[in-house]
Amino acid sequence: MTGVISHFWWESATTNFLYQHVALSEDLFFRRNVLLRFITWFNDPKYTWQHKCFFLRYVVTPTLLVQASRSSNSDRLIDTDFIAQLHRLVWTPLSKGGGTPGIDDMFRTELLHLTTTLVQYYPDLLEDVKKDIVKYIWFHISNCEDVIVKQMGYLLAARFFSTFPTPPKFILRAWTGLLQLPHSESRPTVRYEALSTLVPCLPMDVDESGYPFWAKETRRILSEEPSSHLCIYHLIVKQPDLFFPVRSLFIPHMTSTLNRLGLSASSVPESRSVSVEVLATVFKWEERAAQETKRAADEGKPIPKELRWRTPLALRETMVGYLMRLATITHETAVKVNLTPRVLSLLQSIVGPNGWNDVTVGLRFFARALEQNDFASEAALAQGIAAAKVLQVVAADQPDSWYIANAPILQKLIMKGLLSEDATLQDILYPIFDKLLSLFPLTESAPSGDTELAEFHRTVHNVFAETSMTSSRANVRGVLLIVKSVVRTTPEMFSSTDGSGNPGNSTNAEKFMKLFSELVKDHIRSTPGTAAHEANVRLLMMFLDICRDYTSALGESRRWLLMALVALVDKTKSVTLCKYLLDMAKTWVHNKHAAYPINKEKASLMQKLANFESRGDALFTPYLELIYDIYTDPSLRRSELTSRLENSFLIGCRAKDSGLRERFMDLLDVSVSRSLFNRVTYILAVQNWEVLADQNWIYLALHLLLGAADLQVTNHTRNGSGPLHAIPRPEPQHILRPLQRLLFLDPQAANDVWVSVFPAVWASLSRREQSDVTNHMINLLSKDYHIKQASLRPNVIQTLLAGIHACSPPMTLPPHLVKYLAKNFGCWHIALEILGSALDTMKDDDPTIRDYIYDSLAEIYAELAEEDMFYGLWRRRSLLPDTNIGLAFE
User: Fold this and answer.
1) How far apart are alpha carbons 278 and 284 in whole angstroms?
2) Mean pLDDT calculated for residue range 557-569
3) Which of 271, 322, 446, 458 ranks highest by number of CB atoms within 10 Å?
4) Whole-structure pTM value
């Protein structure tokens, strides 16, 4: 293997070297000498024919081709002397049987290629040797057995005939010779290049029947030599314009050979592919004929004979039938992947609205594969799927009248497959079922009678209303597809019962939701990643599709739906299902005109979806985007939905995505009055911070407080002179806006800013406002939910108490509340400071409050084991000398 690779590497390197240094050389004199050297030792016996062959292949012919491709040929590389030498050495002796003994076929091939290059690019130098070149051509075509040499001879003939005037009989001889070459022995590329070269110079003389001689000869070969069928069909596909005027000669024969090409035991993938390409060409011919006929009629011109001929209906029906059979037979996997889509695409074009509308498709063709098939084996199922795909193509673009006319047979063809266990088969047949049901909607009660459509309706009724709908049924997916169509056409079916009139019977909606609940339980118990789990997820999404679009039809059973959705949001491990639930909620939210679900039910689901915060940003970010859309939708402003989703809105204010978080915070900022007192009241009394209780939310409170600042303050110039006094003050927004954005990132910085800002806010309030704020602060500090962040440092209680301690005049807090906060939130030292300051400001005529403060201080000192402070405090409180004596003994 290594030796083979080394050989190819050496050959490639040598070839590139020769191309670069000879053929692509800019030195005209050097290249001319190389060509003359070849002429010099052409007959030298010291050099083998193989040596000369490779010299032709890699040096002589490439040099001539490169020279011909260059834009300027003013300096001719070769002249008539070079042509005369070739004439003497090559064309004359090699036109005779014994001209050059020992020459091999590979060398003959290279000489033919060289001659072809000269004929194609240097024809003006060949005027004096044309006759001998023709003899040279016919000698190789007639006498050489090697198929490559013969084909190169035909290619040379085609190039010669397309370059020099030639009698028609020679052109026809070359044409028929190319067509008669055995297909298995020829090189298709060389043959079709030669045929394509001959096309422009074919004689267009016609016989008494009105057809050109070349067309008659081609038709004769097609009839007499079956081995040439593929070659001629390939040619027709590649040259459709050439054969269009004479298509009436070929289409009948092409139609008669379709079965042999694609359906016989000897058919091969190539012949089947060619048959499809041929039929596609015929279809394009028919379209072209119709278009050109219409154009001629519009312009008032006579319609030519070749346009008046149309493919007979019987032949077109045969073609359609062939495509249907070809699409349903068993193919190898590789062939099926490439061939079947092409067949179905062509069939769809033919039977579609712009195709052959007069062709009748026999639907009985599908009975064996779809109606009589039980799909028990893989082969039977594969046959059923193939037939269903063809039926889907046939029915796809048909008008309603076609469905009405064929409804009895269509309903028989689709029901067994629709209720099978295969999802692919169900998906293919479902559009036909849905169309039939839209044209023939169900009634609430099963119809009576013996008609085929009545039987179809009874079958659907039984499927929809049967009491055995359980999640263990293998064909539950097919049942769901049927239910989806039934509810779309007859929503009242959800509220009906089995028709017995018993009021205790369950409605169809209740049965449906019972099945849904069972599937939800199965999903929660299933193991993620297994095939059963994925299948269950797909079934649940089908159920939810129906519930989403027809919620109002569920009636009182909506509560089952909401309970199941809550269970799924809480316990599902499927990301796909979570995304679906989010999309479902989005659909409900944006569908404002639907009566159901009501806003309360929408809000209930949206609140539950907040659990996605623990599932990662891929789920939580779209959820927050939806919340933001709800609050920015003018039609939902002040609605029940927005009032119930305030907690979800606050969650958006702590989103990890900075851009999304800032949008939420800015929206909150503009929704609150800019009055300083109103903002403080909103922070301390109006807003419920319980949803953010596990996080220090003081950054959000600061965002609101800083948002109350007046950003239009006049920029006063500093007094004095010098460069420092010439620097203008920064605009307030240039400091406040970045500060509002950055506080979320550092709780300690937010704590420090609050301790600085809150005393200034407090000092800006009136006495009455301070009294109200004090009451609000006491109520806020008393909330139980703060305990969730007791372990945080700094927590919101520590921050609030630190801000209170810095206020002047001081804010008065109940001593027992301060003691409680100190014990539970680690506010020991700030609580001591607050209580100590309270003693200093407390009036002497209020001994009860003073005792409360002393008791609270004493208890805090005791908790901290500060014995000196504890006993010192009691000595300070003592009223009698005996108390001091007793404390001294302690």
Assistant:
1) 10
2) 89
3) 322
4) 0.77
